Structures are given as C-alpha cells and as structure tokens.
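Appendix B. Chain record.
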Amino acid sequence: MNKSNLIGFVLIGVIMFGFMWYQSKLYNEQVEVQAQLDSIARVEQMAAMAMDSVRRAEAGEAGVQVKTMPAYKDSMLTEARLAQAQVYKLSNDKLEIEFTTRGAQPYSVKINDYKSYDSTDLYLIKPEYSQYGVSLFAGENINTKDFVFNVAECNDSTIVMQLPFAQGGYIQQKYALSHGSYTVKNELSFVGMENVIPRNVSMVDIDWNLVIPRLEKGYKNEKQYSKFDIYYEGDKKPEEFGRGRDDNERVDTRFKWFAFQQQFFSAIMTSGTEFASADLGVKYFAEDDPSHNLMACSARLRSDFQAGSADVVLPYEFYFGPNDYRGLKAYDMKYEKIIPLGGWLVGWFSRLVIIPCFDFLGKFISNYGLVILLMTLLIKLLISPLTIKSYKSSAKMQVIKPEVDKLNAKYPNEKDAMKKQQAMMDLYQKAGISPMGGCLPMLLQMPILFAMFRFFPASIELRQQKFLWADDLSAYDSIWDFGVNIPLLGDHLSLFALLMALTMFFYSKMTSGQMSDDPNMAGMKFMSVWLMPIMMFFICNNLSAALSYYYLLSNIITMIMTWYIRKFVVTEEKVRADMMLNANKPKQKSKWQQRLEEAQKMQEQMQKQQKRK
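Structure tokens predicted for this chain:
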C-alpha cells in the first residue's frame, strides 16, 4: 500500500468518524429538546389543571352544576363518585383549614393574625382553588380526588376520612393540626388492600394543583419574590426555581420537601421518608387578572409503595404559614433557607448581624421606622473605622492633587503610561498613600449594602407596617398615583425613592471634588454624580419603602459623618503633618512597584530596539 492510499484511507476514516460524531451530537440535541418540550407540556397541563380549579370555583359561585362521569368496576367507587361532598374545618390559633370529603383533601387555608393588602382575611388557598389527589392502580386506575370519602373521625384537631372498596379494605387520609402550629400532619394509609392493589405496584402518584392569590400591594415586587423550592436531604439549602417567571423542573432523584413560596407565605409539603421523583412547575397570572390570582402551582409527585402489606402508611407534613426566619428555623428542616437572604457572604451577614439586631430592637420598639433608623446608626458606628480610613486616604489624595495634575500634564501621551504610573507610585509612597486605601474600605461595606437590599423586601416583620406617609414598609410608598403605567417608572411616584436619589446626588457632589481632574475620570464623575442617583431612583421606585428609607438614612448619616471627619478628624493640617512624618521614614519598594519598574525597563528596551530598526 503506497503513501497516497494510506492517506486516503485515513481521511475516509476521519470523515466517517466525524460524520458519526456529528449525527450522534444532533441526536442528543434532539433528545434534549424533546425532553424540554415534554417537560413544558407536562407543567402546562398541570398548570391548566390548577387553573381549572379557578373555573370550577367560579362556576360553583355562579350556580353552574358540574356533571359527574361514568361508573367503575367497583360498585362502591361508583357510589362514592356520585355522592355529595361535605366540608369540615380544623382550626387553631394560627390556621383555619377546611377539608372537603371529595378527595379527602384541603379545601381552603386561612392564616390567622394576617390580612391581605385589601384588609380582607388572608387565604393562602381560597375555597376550591386546590386539587389534591392520589393516583394508583387498584384493579383499575383511580384518583382519589374523584371520590367522596366517609368521615370516620372528626374533632377539633383531627379528621379521618376513608374510601372503602367492595373487595375489602379502604384508603384513609388522616389530618392532624396541633395547637400553636402552622403544620398539618398527614397520614395516607392503605388498610387491608393487599387483595385489591396488585403486588407489582411499587409507586403511588400524588397530584397537587393549587392557585395562590395576590396578597400584597405591589404586583411586581410580590411576583419577583415568589418561586418554588426543592430540598435534597443533606444539602445546605434548597434549590430555587421560577423566581418571578414561569418555570418547571423535572426531578429524577430523591428529595425531602418542596415549597410553593409567595413573597411572605408558603405552602410546603414534606415526605416522612423521601419523594422518589417529581414534576414541579409554576405559571404566573397577569397583573390585571380579574380574580387577583398570583400563580398557579403544580406538583406531580411519586412515592414508594410496598404492595402486599396489609397496612401501608405514607407519612407527610404540610406547612401553611409565614416566611418568618426564626419560626421556620425552629422546624430544623432548612425551611428558613427559602427566604432569599443572598449568597454565602451576604447571607452570613444577614443571619448573624442584621436579623439578630432587627429582632432585638423590635422587642422594645413597636415603630419599625425607628427600628430601621437605630439599626442604620448602629451599622454606621460599627463600620466607622473603615469609613475614617477611607476618608484619610481621600484627604491625602486631595492634598497631593496638584502634584497629580502636574504628572498628568507631564505625561499626556499613551506611550508614556508606564512612566506616568511609576511616577504616581513614587508620589503615593512618599505621601504614605495606598492605592487601594480608599477603595478597599468601600468594598468591605458592599456586603452590607447587598444584605440590606435582600433583607428588607423579604422581612415579614415589615409587612403592612406604617411609617410616615408609607402605609406598608414592605411595599412601595406612593405620594402620586398616575393612573397609567409609565415605562421604567411604573404607575406611581415613591417619595422615599426620590429623597434617596437626591441625597445620593448631593453626597456625590460633595465628594466629587476629591476626584482627579484627569480627563479619563470625567466619565466616572458623571456616573457618580448624575447617572447612579437616577438609576437608583428608577430601581427603588417599585421596591420596598423600607429599603429606600434605609438608603436615604444611610446617605444622610454618611454626609454628616463626612462633614464631621473633614472638620475635626481628618483636617488638612493633620494630613500634611502625617505625610511629612511619613516622608522621613525609610521607604521599601513593594512587589507591585518592583514589577512595575521591571515592566517599564522592558518597555524602554523594546522602544530602543524599534528605533534602531
């Protein structure tokens, strides 16, 4: 075989391999796309079932009769299908939960001690806006939501409902609500059904579709902080999906619990063992929805089932209540992790500093506007050493500003950038200035700003708390309702957001004089003085009034501190004295300066070589 033939065979092999690889890639992509389409179809189907609850409720209110359908092989199931459902109620000091005997399922959930934004009773689930059913094969495919159960026991704290079969045995749903709790314990039992359910049945499916209504003043804010969460046993925190947008998730691994979370209230379902798999999804209603609904939630769950046993009990637990950090943490189930407090650093600061401080002050002060004021003062006091250090660096920069301007004039060309940088470093060293002296303290304060940005919109303590002109610190404040929606701004004007932007503007003007007159800094000055205040106004106009109020206070306190530090702590005389003292000390070049000098020497050598050529 000559060389040409060998190369030909190799090329043919490469082409065939490449073609097979390409075909395989296309196939995998098609499989992924189809899987996504199937998943979307499933969640849309489940969301449609949830929304069907709304239509059923509205039809019921209008007096429209919903027709029942066909007979089953089991005569008792046919009878149960046609029976008239009844509603029973369990209540304690926290909850009022109604259960319907059709499907032995929750019918409505009212949370006591809280009101909706329109001052009506707060229903996390309105009557008939939930469908909960257990699907399995018991000689034929059945779903418990289609049948009326018999009430075997009912008292103030417990209700037991049973669905009997002609061949013996029954399906039982037991719900128990204890005093002072937001949780409902649930036992799904299959009693004496070893001759009804085939031995090869190993799984039970649970379908839960519910609609959560709007409960807060601002739709955008409420939607932005609503989502669903999935928690896997052993993880540090749950995974979140669908924050403010339609979403679905197919779960093929075992998990412990999931939550349908509105901004301040959640419906959480936990398995006593673990769920085997699930399809979870959420679809949001439009802001102008006539029924004032927020989101349609859907869950198709699968649990292990041991067929052949005389009695099979599957334990579950429901939480219907507020997203209160300490209350959720007390369950020791990682429920509190659904509250969006930020990443590890921001979340750490929120949990260890902000929340304890907020709770401590809240014990003694009922006005949360004053609580925020005191907390802001305390935080500013704690970070004052960093603030003073930053101002010292800025003051020194102001003193050497004429020298900096001379260097800018001496090295105006791009080719002299290295020389200019070296001269700047020498000047900074003589003056005892660290290039990061002003930036680093500010960077260290960023986690605090982000923590506050996360904390206030998620703090249920601020919900419906009045302060000054704001009727709800957890929502936007409005001094002027436009009646029409203006792009970026919304349909209202927030006074806290406007005052916050103005104080930010004046503070930026107050400190902009310390910036260099270098033309390259002109864009930075414009952004600091004009662009940032305007951007922050548009951002905060629709956010929590407490957040805008905090930034307003922070700006005012910072301006006062700046004036005081400049007047009494970091005066120009003290700065010049420190700089003179520092100039007499022996200087040791930093590694950064050494690298800069080496780079400058290399650049000079390259320029000399280019001139020779």
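Further analysis of this model is presented in Appendix C.
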